[in-house]
Amino acid sequence: MSIFRLVSDLRNYNDVLKECREELPVYLTKKGRGKYVLMDIEDYEKMKATIKLIDHIEEGEKSAREEGWSTVENIESALGL
Known about the structure:
By secondary structure, this protein is an alpha+beta fold.
């Protein structure tokens, strides 16, 4: 369930921060539109790490499409197995 609060509610920011829990961000609205998100720092760090991982996976897939996929034998050889 999402929590929506008005930006003006930040006058009592302790009340707003109490609502911000793990995996449950607080969305702040201004003039009836979404404007900001308050979230747990650990969730933010996980989100950044996930985005970075997806970027690396996309780079690998692009490289594989352009240069071809490696065989198991090539990987084992590169790793000295």
